[in-house]
């Protein structure tokens, strides 16, 4: 059962943490968090006088029929045929599909995961057609757009807040190296965000911050304020999955007892598997030909595959039907694939992550008293994911907080308000 209500921002302690930077930083009136996700991005903020009232943008103009993701927008950048920034997110998606001539236009999607391979400042990322572009420019453009959108939303709430009075928090995956984190900070600086007002936080630690601020009205048997209680926070998103654990201390303080760790076990890998299966069925090379000759149709096919794999009803039928563009196949309009096969791809991703969780639990003796798993992020509401975790950890109860997809963003805001006594040295060192 989803949990509702906000109680109080938790305070994190870290014995090795130097708290001097909080005391020395200038006055902060607003904390703003930005999340560049593998598939979707967004922002949130709250004011210092009312930190728990976290404001999420709910006015993204989505092009599809789903309102489920209106609080975030696709991580998509569109450059015009002159190489200049044109649009981001749903707007970029919609405009790109409306073009009758795509020549010279460049669309980038799913580029966050590229930093797992190469995060040097001279790294490049391919656009949809396979042409390289400087990665640092792409991330800078993304942060500049999201920050600009954020500032407009903020000024509708208060016209007196100056940009120099905003503390920025940017979320990063636990699996990122120090080099990747430096890359993100450099992108933020180039986007105009003052380095004195910027902190990075690991996404699962941000989610834990939000979770420990939740007042569990629907389940009074669970008490977050019980000193000595221990919780496992599991985050499963589009590109990565990770886990951390914390313990409740006296006076409502919280201490991380297992740093965030994980891997690239996100479900975008399932989409790639389906795409490769389709390529084999249609004849290897046909999809590449579609991309070269009908890039708009190719992108619509990618959308179709994404919609199918993230549908909560994907396993409710024996087969999954993917609609094919006319330019790809004039004879075969649909591709049918047995859901049992798709399930093996999902199982592979989740099983690898479950094995990682088991390793964490077995090597950290202090985690043997855990009784609950808190599941957050994009796939937290998936019954398939919930059931696999419940079956793998029969002694633990799986709990889904309210708005699990927004736990990282909201938690990052709360983290920013408590920065300096917060969550763990993994975040404090970046």
UniProtKB/TrEMBL annotation:
Keyword set includes Nucleotide-binding: yes
Protein name: Uncharacterized protein
GO molecular function: ATP binding; ATP-dependent protein folding chaperone
Keyword annotations of the record: ATP-binding, Nucleotide-binding
InterPro entries: ATPase_NBD, Hsp_70_fam
Record SUPFAM superfamilies: Actin-like ATPase domain
Family: Belongs to the heat shock protein 70 family.
Pfam families named in the record: HSP70
